[in-house]
Amino acid sequence: MAPMGIRLSPLGIGVFCLLALGVLYHVYSGFLSSRFSAFLDGLPGPEQTVDLRQLLAAAVKAAELGGKEVTRVRESNLLDEKRKGKTREGADDKMTRGDELSNKKMYHLIKTAFPGIQVNTEETVEEDDEGPAPWDGTIPGSIMDKIQIPRLVPAGSITVWIDPLDATYEYTENLVHYVTTMVCVAVDGKPLIGVIHKPFTGYTAWAMVDGGSNVEKRSDYNAKTPTIIVSRTHSGLVKQVTLETFGNQTGIISAGGSGYKVLSLLDVTEEKQEHADVYVHVTLIKKWDICAGNAILNALGGHMTTLKGENIVYTGSSGNEGGLLASIGMDHDALVRKLADKIPAVKKKPPE
Question: Is 0.85 surpassed by the pTM of this model?
């Protein structure tokens, strides 16, 4: 009797093939999956974006938080004054415990909430310094009412400039009405968001270019014999140039702090807040001192430029070498031309 062979039915052959395919799938799927994942990892991912409304809300919160440190230290009278050196004009460049503590709080709040953005701040910050409690991301109704549509920009295009205590010199003299804390957001070097907070009164001015603001320009400005606001600590050349440019009847205000000076151009009713028509500075000034004011003026239709009339770019170096001319409700180009005639180092802006 011949031995019996094993014969598979068509159904059995089909089952066998399916089993074989299943084994092959499990063997190779892991390999293919890892290769595909590696391929995807090698592709550039979507760039992180930031809603400028959220960044504005965080900037306001940071300025107010820093302001609390500034007032607390001043009221304790434990300033722990230090000299960082001399300014170019020979004045002491001071730093206090208020500067340091405000700087830490403001920097860490912004950097923790938006880790993908560049933050430039006046004082040194250690990454392991204790920061404030994390910001919860809430956009206040006062901002939402003014800016209802999200403003998304790439995180890599943003530079934030923080001034944790503007008018430190006046702060040490207890002239606290000059003191502000400021945050500015620049996108591709252009100032778009400005926050100026007066910690000793609680007043905060903010604005976003092509967005909204909680502050306005005044109803009128004196173009014929404007009142000029200048620095308290190095105002000699500015006063001389101002009188030669606009005449002996021109009013001159000597004040501390760039934030205070910008607010003097606006419709701000605050204790001891003076009002001026033009803000002039003729020497080096740091960008964290002026960026917030530049953004607010731009948002309200004003101007802040170098003395040559050039826009200030808020990337790269922290110093602005070209002097400063700020105005709103005035013919800014005419002011540039007048000052160029009186300041030898300033050449007229070339015709466009």
Answer: no
End of a domain among 213, 239, 269? Answer: 213
Nearest to 170 by CA among 179, 162, 161: 179
- For 269-324, the pLDDT digits (tens) are 998 999 999 999 988 999 999 999 999 999 999 999 999 999 999 999 899 988 89
Tell me which of 156, 187, 213 is where a domain ends.
213
How many domains is the chain built from? Answer: 2
* 69 marked ligand binding residue: no
Q: What is the mean pLDDT of the chain?
A: 85
Q: Which of 9-23, 137-151, 172-186, 317-331 has the lowest mean pLDDT?
A: 9-23
Q: Is 237 annotated as a binding residue?
A: no
Which ranges constitute the DSSP H helices of the chain?
10-42, 52-76, 97-113, 141-144, 168-172, 236-246, 258-263, 287-299, 332-342
| Angle of the 52-76 helix axis to the 97-113 helix axis, nearest 10 | 160
Query: Domain limits at 82?
Result: 49-213
Domain match, 235 and 155 both: no
Is the pLDDT confidence value at 5 over 60? no
Q: What is the DSSP letter of 157?
A: G
Q: Is 163 annotated as a binding residue?
A: yes
352: tokens are: 């466009």
Co-location of 334 and 190 in the same domain? no
- Cα separation, 187 vs 181, in Å, equals 20
Q: Is residue 23 part of a domain?
A: no
Task: Say whether 166 counts as a known binding-site residue.
Answer: yes
220 is in an annotated binding site: no
Residues 44-77 as b/e (b if ≥16 CB within 10 A, e otherwise) read eeeeebbbbbbbbbbbbbbbbbbbebbbebbeee
